[in-house]
Amino acid sequence: MCDENINLEEYRSSMLAALSTDPADTEAMAELMCADCLICEDNIKDLGPSWRNTPFVEEILRYAPRVAESGQTTLVANVCERVADTLSYHPRLTLRLMRQQRMALAMEALPGNDDLHVLDKRIDLYERNIEAAGRADFGSIEPEGRLKSDPVEWTERFEQVIDEAEAKVWSRIDADMRGLGFCHLMWHELQHVLACDYGIEWRSPARMNPRVMFD
After folding, report:
1. What is the pTM of this model?
2. C or N terminus of the chain, fewer CB within 10 Å?
3. Arithmetic mean of pLDDT, 73-84
4. Any residues with CB less than 8 A from the CB of 4 and at least 6 apart, and which?
């Protein structure tokens, strides 16, 4: 992983320049993936704008197969796992990351590897939920973890518009408002934007989990 203390945007630009000179430079691809991962992690600090991460994730997925084939399977698996944790409301994109992570792990793992077993179970859950959402069979969608989420989040339509919707919300909210209770403000605005601009009725985590305290 590249040095976290460097200017990530500048370093990323230098790796893109290297690839424009030599499109087969797998070392530059690997460093670009690392820079993209760190940028994604920076974006979500302190409830930051996760909607900015999608282009970086797409770039990671574009180069991951070549980097894994070059022998840097551990790096690919780690980047895919870390960047998946920076995504919100993107089940299909997360599934692609998990599949790439699995491919990288399988290249180096011994039979019976526990990481593969756990990852396979999560991949299976995502595949079943996405398929159920495609059939509008929302009653078959299983929660991931203890907290419930609105099943509409698994639909392709939701995933297609969520980044744009969140960008609109961020344009209306002052960054100084971030702090205790900020999530409730964000969810209220997001619910309004999704309903008014996209015709999507969405229930926030607070509504889906009324007995849970969110700050």
Report:
1. 0.91
2. C
3. 96
4. 38
Q: Are the beta carbons of 165 and 190 closer than 8 angstroms?
A: yes
DSSP codes of every residue in 120-179: HHHHHHHHHHHHHHHTT-GGGPPPSSSS---GGGGSHHHHHHHHHHHHHHHHHS-GGG-S
Q: Do 56 and 36 touch, CB atoms closer than 8 A?
A: yes
Which residue is associated with the tokens 């990852």?
Answer: 119
- Residue 195, both tokens: 């309903």
Could you tell me the two tokens for 100?
């790439």
* CA–CA distance, 33 with 26 (Å, rounded to integer): 10
pLDDT digit string (tens) for 136-172? 999 999 999 899 999 999 999 999 999 999 999 989 8
